[in-house]
Amino acid sequence: MLARLFRADAPSVHAHVAWEDLPDEALPTPPLRDGLGSAHLPVTTRVPLAQAYFDQGLRLLHLGWALEARRAFAEAARQDPSLAMAWWGLALARGVGQRFTADRAEAIRKALTLAEGATDVEQRLVVAASLLADKGPANGRHAFVREMECLIDRFPQEPEPRLLLAGFLLDGYESDGRPGQGQPYAQLLLRDLQRTHPHHAGAHVAWVQAWLPSARPETALESAELLPSLVPAGSPALLAAGRLLLRVGRAAEANRILEAAVTVDDAYLARESLPLEVAPSADTALRLLSEGCAEVGQYRGAQAWARKLRQRVEASGGQPQAVLFAATTLVAAHLRFGFSRAAAEVPMELGDKATVAEAGLRDAVRLYARGVCALETGRLGDVERACGNLDALVLTLSEAPRSEGRALCPRDVARTVEVAAQELRGTLDARRGDSGRAEATLTRALRLERRLRPVGPALFCRPPRETLARVRLRSGREEKALELALERAGERPGCGHCMLLVAEAHVACECMSEAAHDFAVVLDLWRDADPHLPGLQRARGFAAHRGRGRAALRRVPDAAVDTAPAPQGGQSTWTVHGG
To answer: Which SUPFAM superfamilies does this entry report, sorted A to Z (predicted)?
Structure first.
């Protein structure tokens, strides 16, 4: 999709992958593959294999699999060096950033040179792409959109121009929920495309991406359910479908699809004897699987997936950025269940080649986890020092130069660290009894979190909205706490932790019938949870003592406190240590 290829890269586990620095002509030849959809655009060539490889590249572009799309387009150009659209595809698949500007410009120049004898559709697509390559997505936006609109008007039966324009216009949502510029227009194009081409896999992938960051992700639920059958070999499409299903609370289905994405990637790598870092979706799918297990109360499962990711990273050479992504996944699992000591002990050895952003993120995660440990054991002076060190890190990272491509950007890391620093400081203020200051600090953390760029690193601290809700409960502002808890649960309807917070807020508000319903939802969400999960015990206790022990349940319990080493081996479910 053009939005993915011409703008900032999505966060990636690996900062560098094979083939990125290879010239187009040196790329290895890919096999023709099934299971990637059925997109087809007739191009001007007399070589059947050139047409076949071009179509494969087009399908991969729609999936957002740029690296593999580039291989397909390069092979199409080898099969027919006069095929203008092969060079058009190479320009789109080359990626963003200044380091690839010359490569994109050269590919578009070749496409323009060869397009003279091509069809009108091909010529207009090449001209439109040249406007972006020459001026960039910001300065060339208007001219590109006008050119594509003219093409759509002249050839309304062709789905590809509509899909390419929609992909470029998709712009997400702002922190207040308003759609970005072009987002409603893109959604209209995609809605019409689904009506005229209901089995176009690329249209369904784009539709899922269009609604995933919105307040109404269920709008794309049907597309998410269709994608595994439309593109069974397209792991990026499976990843998008699994992410959306997880977002709407269908964790079991999401996990099956995400596991399928990992399996598809592993089969792809084994078939072509490729390195692990080339897999487009497996690493992110493993992170989501860990997150999904945490939401349904499976601490052991969350750890298992995080450690599987760590093993993949080590097997691929242990790039510092990849080590960090794996480590923060395990840290997040520990923190979600209240085991801050285990989070603080997660190894994050990056070596001497770590960038400023990588070293900064490592130090921030360690400082935050140790600060939470100190808070839980009453060492408030140590917490204050951790907050001060996090603030200093934010300043250092904010002043560092920007990075490009897949590498972590110091300024994106700074934003994430600032959220964590404010969340920890707000919790410290609450522990000191200054509820007003804690409220202000945590509200700032919440606002900062809403402004995080989607291409930055994942948030490694406790969700500020949940922390603020618990602070409000303890300070007697139950109604305001309930509002926050309901808002958070609306965003993550499948998360038992969020629903538990809603239930406890209803208890604090003495809304017992609502609390009973909420605890029942928690028990349903956590029906396969680890049996010793404290929140699960509270939910079962409420259900068992309804009508008798309500008064004893009206005190909202604090988050789990990790003040002693977690049990080892088979002694209980809570096994937190170990590599």
So the answer is: TPR-like (SSF48452)
